[in-house]
Design a protein that fits this description.
The protein has 445 residues and is of the alpha+beta class. Helices cover 16% and strands 43% of the residues. The strands form ten sheets. Strands 2-1-38-37 form a four-stranded antiparallel beta sheet, with no helix packed on it. The chain has a four-stranded antiparallel beta sheet with strand order 3-4-5-6. A four-stranded antiparallel beta sheet has the order 10-11-12-13, with no helix packed on it. The protein is flat.
């Protein structure tokens, strides 16, 4: 019989947090050192050691951004900090947070909590803050406010990009299909309103569409790359992906096609590489040289030094040499955030750490019962260090062997008591096992 086990792994494929063993059904990715987790009924947060740092008491929980996270309880929403303290009451219809600013909705009105802590509710819609400015909308007219609620650009535009970028905003005066151009943060028009589409600025350039073709303008409105492509993406690491006749390539900021459009599909450059498809997926450098074989059914950008790849129904990760640092064995995998990645693997009914321990027993060996229970994984880096200490130090002395014998006579029953005791396990990790691990690691015992 097969089931699915969910866990967090590091870039060496070490299982750091075994979610199922800790009683969790799902976890989001880590942001600001916290991951939202649920037992199927309530939500809370764990840290990177698997400690439950914010109890499972919410009906919903979102990712932390800038030390704040939206949560939901009894149909109401609010914001908490990384300690679980309520920064706002849990009373709103909706809440969002970005750049430390909080937007709120209550009784069909959107608003925000300004820098002084004042609650302002008077708009039909308030969008996220970006570069200290947020777009607001009332009666289908859009304008912009600062972090203190001052309306720095009057609500007069029918269309506007939701976010300011590099001090400029794309706007249109008539309707959603009107011609677009850019204004600055004072409301001054800096480019003509003539484009069918106008994106945000990045590295001093913005994607625009004119007469059905795509190109780039600079912040003065100069068309530095004439609109001639079927589609175009923003610059990333000095190159922008372009599409012509359903083929993909890359241009530089001078408009030179450094990698001519010849590929079936592609993903923008990240960490010096771009994933491209030529029958199958592989990777090229900024000169267009293939560096990793075209063998995968799908591939994603590099992030934190590794890239997710997919082959024969399984996900894994490769490094920049093409070496598989995480084997192709997972039925699902996110990407790495803050050094950890959530994965799902098909397993037999018995968790892998328990099967390994049973296998070792048949060979006359034993597992680290208490540490495995507290950390939730036989393959966690702490348990690996403890096993190394047992095998390379304790087992070499008579006193050490006596200690091992006594430990394995008593520890299975202790581990059974500790199973699913999250509070006790967190206490033991923090005040007993983590200090021992730090000592062993630093002393190189």
């Amino acid at each position: 019989m097969m089931n699915f086990t969910k866990s967090f792994i590091d870039r060496n494929d070490n299982q750091i947090i075994y979610l199922g063993y800790l009683g969790y059904e799902f976890a989001s990715d880590f942001h600001d050192g916290r991951a939202a987790v649920t037992n199927g009924e309530k939500w809370g947060y764990i840290d990177k050691w698997g400690n439950e740092v914010i109890p499972l008491k919410y009906d919903g929980a979102e990712d932390f951004r800038g030390g704040l996270a939206p949560v939901r309880k009894n149909g109401r929403r609010g914001i908490i900090d990384q300690r679980g303290k309520e920064v706002t009451p849990i009373k709103y219809d909706k809440t969002r947070t970005k750049e430390g600013m909080i937007t709120i909705k209550l009784n069909d009105k959107w608003g925000f909590i300004d820098k002084s802590g004042r609650e302002v509710l008077k708009y039909d819609t308030v969008y996220d803050f970006n570069e200290g400015v947020a777009m607001v909308e009332t009666n289908q007219k859009r304008g912009f406010i600062d972090a203190y609620g001052n309306e720095i650009i009057p609500l007069k535009y029918v269309y506007a990009n939701t976010e300011i970028s590099e001090g400029l905003i794309a706007v249109g005066e008539d309707n959603i299909n009107s011609q677009l151009g850019y204004i600055d943060i004072t409301g001054k028009q800096v480019t003509p309103l003539k484009y069918e589409y106008a994106s945000w600025f990045s590295d001093g350039l913005a994607v625009v569409k004119l007469n059905g073709k795509w190109g780039f303008i600079d912040k003065t409105g100069k068309e530095v790359i004439l609109p001639k492509y079927d589609f175009i993406w923003p610059f990333s690491e000095g190159l922008a992906m372009v599409e012509t006749n359903k083929k993909y390539g890359f241009i530089d900021k001078n408009g030179a096609e450094v990698i001519p459009p010849a590929y079936e599909s592609a993903v923008n450059f990240s960490e010096g590489f771009a994933a491209i498809k030529r029958n199958r997926w592989g990777f090229i450098d900024k000169y267009g040289e293939p560096l990793i074989s075209f063998m995968y059914e799908n591939a994603n950008s590099f992030k934190e030094g590794v890239a997710r790849v997919y082959y024969d129904g399984k996900y894994g990760f490769i490094d920049k040499s093409g070496k598989r640092v995480v084997s192709l064995k997972y039925v699902s995998a996110s990407v790495f955030y803050e050094g950890l990645c959530s994965v799902t693997k098909k397993e037999e009914s018995i968790p892998r750490n328990m099967r390994q321990e049973s296998k070792q027993k048949s060979k006359g060996e034993t597992g680290c019962y208490i540490a495995t229970t507290c950390y939730g994984s036989y393959d966690s880096i702490q348990v690996l260090e403890f096993r190394k200490f047992r095998d390379e130090f304790l087992s070499t002395t008579k006193a050490g062997r006596i200690f091992i014998k006594i430990y394995y006579a008593l520890s299975p029953s202790v581990a059974r008591i500790l199973k699913n005791k999250k509070g006790i396990n967190a206490f033991l990790r923090k005040y007993l096992l983590d200090p021992i691990y730090d000592y062993l690691k630093n002393k190189k015992v």
